[in-house]
Amino acid sequence: MVILVWQQDAKLPVGLGVLRLADLLIRAASNVAPGVSPGTWWGVTLGTAVMGALVLILVGWHSRRGHLRVYAAGLLGYAADGLLCLLLSDWQGLLFHGIALCGLCHGWAAFRQLALVEQSLMFQDSPGEPWR
């Protein structure tokens, strides 16, 4: 989206579909309202990018702490973003999303397995307990 500020038509080979859609919408809005200053569009672009980054940071932060529901929500959100890449005909982005989703699904399975191990360890008696 920052490319819009410099009025270029280039795009990154791999990116988020949501940000690409926001870029397309901002470009369309700037064509519809040409009288609006470029600084306004720059602010909208920057605000959209910052909000997207904050959402990703929060999902990652909670996921690293083992919150499986947040991890699942992030996984589903990333899959939806991959579908958006499909709708936008972004084949490189779709391929990248597929590879990343494969790794994320393996991470989901590992998180669940770790949660089961931790749960089973919590209910085992430790050998040094005085009531044994």
UniProtKB/TrEMBL annotation:
<keyword id="KW-0472">Membrane</keyword>
<keyword id="KW-0812">Transmembrane</keyword>
<keyword id="KW-1133">Transmembrane helix</keyword>
<feature type="transmembrane region" description="Helical">
    <location>
        <begin position="68"/>
        <end position="89"/>
    </location>
</feature>
<feature type="transmembrane region" description="Helical">
    <location>
        <begin position="41"/>
        <end position="61"/>
    </location>
</feature>
<feature type="transmembrane region" description="Helical">
    <location>
        <begin position="95"/>
        <end position="115"/>
    </location>
</feature>
<protein>
    <submittedName>
        <fullName>Uncharacterized protein</fullName>
    </submittedName>
</protein>
